Fold this sequence. Notes:
By secondary structure, the chain is of the alpha/beta class. Helix content is 30%, strand content 20%.
Amino acid sequence: MKAVVFRGIGDIRLENVREPKIKESNDAIVRLTASAICGTDLHMIRGTLPGMKPGTILGHEGVGIVEEVGKNVRNLTVGERVVIPSTIACGNCSYCRAGYYAQCDNANPMGKLAGTAFFGGPIESGAFDGLQAEYARVPFANVGLVKLPDQVSDDQAILMSDIFPTGYFGADLAEIKPGDTVAVFGCGPVGQFVIASAILMDAGRVIAIDRVHSRLEMARGQGAEVINFDEEHPVLAIREMTDGIGVDRAVDAVGVDADHAERGPAAKTAKASKKEYEQELREIAPKTNPHNGNWRPGRAPSQALEWAVESLAKAGTLSIIGVYPMKAKWFPIGLAMNRNITMRMGNCNHRKYVPKLVEMVRSGAVNPASILTQVQPLTSVIEAYKAFDARQEGWVKVELRPTVASVAAA
Length: 410
Ligand SMILES: NC(=O)c1ccc[n+]([C@@H]2O[C@H](COP(=O)([O-])OP(=O)(O)OC[C@H]3O[C@@H](n4cnc5c(N)ncnc54)[C@H](O)[C@@H]3O)[C@@H](O)[C@H]2O)c1
Ligand SMILES: [Zn+2]
Ligand SMILES: [Zn+2]
């Protein structure tokens, strides 16, 4: 079958690989009809989320049809349509039972403390083969796989594998109450779903910060008040927009590949911190491999976190869903401590949110497909990765269609 394979930092390839087989009694094999590219994949290829094992199939978003089930998968039958939550969880340990699926004690073969188990990730996450492929093995399929009603299309469902739940989780962690003013740093696909979720949670105002025009326009289309950090200093703009108070809740939907401003007033401040940013990059990403404008790590890993803390009102809440590698140690702790800031963060407990979001989409309350900007065959995956990595105007979220499925559907 065809699959996207990680070969090294800055080196991904579409290869022919062996089809997966059932290994455990609660596994299922899913024939993928949709996959997608996530900002987390970019961190791994840029080298800022290190530890990938060469040969691992990438991708942690998937929708498909159950092809085969192990003998302990008692709730699914072959032929059913399902969405695959990105994180893998047993459903049985005390963490899963409490809804902390991302902290499952049993799913990660590297051990209880190794980190969140997810598809297509680094060794510390279990080095599971991912979902940018024609078929995938899904461990703990009886717990993970969520059935899809006919009314929910693949284009809608693929966004519920990872990024809609993650955006919702980010808004949930931020403790958004009706009337709150919320700042969302990063208007990539995840940031777009934080905005949508904040609005669903009755936020009074949502302020969205990025520099990519088409992403800011999409945020504005959802009702957010937008700030381009290459034109205005985002923290000063937020203070001015909130009568000097700041925002009640801030969400970091950027992560380790954060950039500093290249132009405008915030570029001046960044110049003074250039050495610190370079040091941060050396610590977390000793190996990088930028090539022809692609796979360049962000220039200022701590920038989004710094702005988020600075923009908060006293006693506000910071929610961090942007991904940082285990080695990252920098954070404006003094400012956060002295302002009585509450911080909540983590990898999304996907399985906790997916069923509820599927029902919201089925009922017509939200249409997640409105943020999908490209649908590409798996055969064009490398070009699609490059455009998404370069944040080309108009490229917000890319769905991939694996070949076997498209042929079968035709
Ligand atoms: N916690 C989880 O479970 C989880 C799940 C999925 C994705 N993520 C993470 O969410 C983050 C966003 O994912 P995505 O797919 O939207 O990625 P993306 O790379 O498409 O989006 C990031 C956006 O941030 C913007 N940006 C860069 N520096 C900035 C700054 N200083 N201030 C404000 N905006 C800035 C970029 O222009 C870009 O639009 C990534 O870190 C990804 O790994 C986390
Ligand atoms: Zn993801
Ligand atoms: Zn568990």
